[in-house]
Amino acid sequence: MNEKTECAKCTRVVCNSEAFLKGPPNCPTKTKKELIQQALTEYDDPQTREFARQASIQEFECYMHLPEGLTTRYPRVEEIVQFAKKMGFKKLGIAFCGGLADEAKMLTRILENRGFEVVSVCCKAGAIPKERIGITEEQKIAGAGAFEAMCSPITQAEILNDEGTEFNILVGLCVGHDSLFFKYSKAPVTVLVAKDRVFGHNPVMGLYLARSFYYRKLLRKESLDS
Question: Where are the domains of the chain?
Fold first, then answer.
């Protein structure tokens, strides 16, 4: 049986070169040949192929070759606008966390200024009490006895499905809530903001600081039972 795939630990990265067969023994380019070929057949679907093609073109257009070297061009919000136009999308959806209402409002303004019709839905839409999913009084953020509406990413997805959005944008949904939105959204989804309450919604800072004195605790070893 093949060793498990561990690309993140690879010390001989060759998959983006002509020497792609010279990777380590557990390189999926070697060990998953049949699966890779099977996955490639999905690109035979015209819509999937065009989506992938435009995404690759978008990637290409995000760089400039200048005398001083390769330089980036666009922030992610601009990339989303450009990609949506490439795909011919007219109606975009925004699923946002109530804590990022200002960001969602600005995003709506940007998208509408660029010609899109925008549908936006907050995570608390429906005002369903958290008790509906078994949250206890002690588990409420506002404290016992307070009314607290649950976040309902399934509701958000179904509202955008009902409105017929063609491309949905996530703005700050919680971990797990975003997963449910991905599962129930009929339209393809991209993420503009990944929530990180500590690092100002810039979660990669947790990786950059994991070796620092203050955040090395992120590298502590635990078992799944801890």
Answer: 8-42, 45-195
Q: Closest Cα to residue 79, out of 194, 212, 210, 192?
A: 192
Residue 173 to residue 157: CA distance in whole angstroms: 12
45-195: CATH topology: Rossmann fold (3.40.50)
Picking from 33, 34, 27, 35, the residue whose alpha carbon sits closest to that of residue 3 is: 27
**How far is it, in rounded angstroms, from Cα 159 to Cα 20?**
45
- With tokens 């309902």, the residue in question is 152
Burial of 138: CB neighbours in 10 Å, binned 0-12, 13-18, 19+ = exposed
Whole-angstrom Cα distance, residue 195 to residue 192?
Answer: 10
**What band does 2 get if pLDDT is binned at 50, 70 and 90?**
low
63 CB neighbour count, 10 Å cutoff: 12
What average pLDDT score do residues 75-84 get?
98
Q: What's the one-letter identity of residue 166? A: E
CA torsion 156-157-162-166 (nearest 10°) is: 120
User: 121 and 162 in contact (C-beta within 8 Å)?
Assistant: no
C-alpha distances out from residue 182 to 39, 58, 72, 149, 186, Å:
20, 22, 29, 21, 9
Predicted TM-score (pTM) of the model is: 0.94
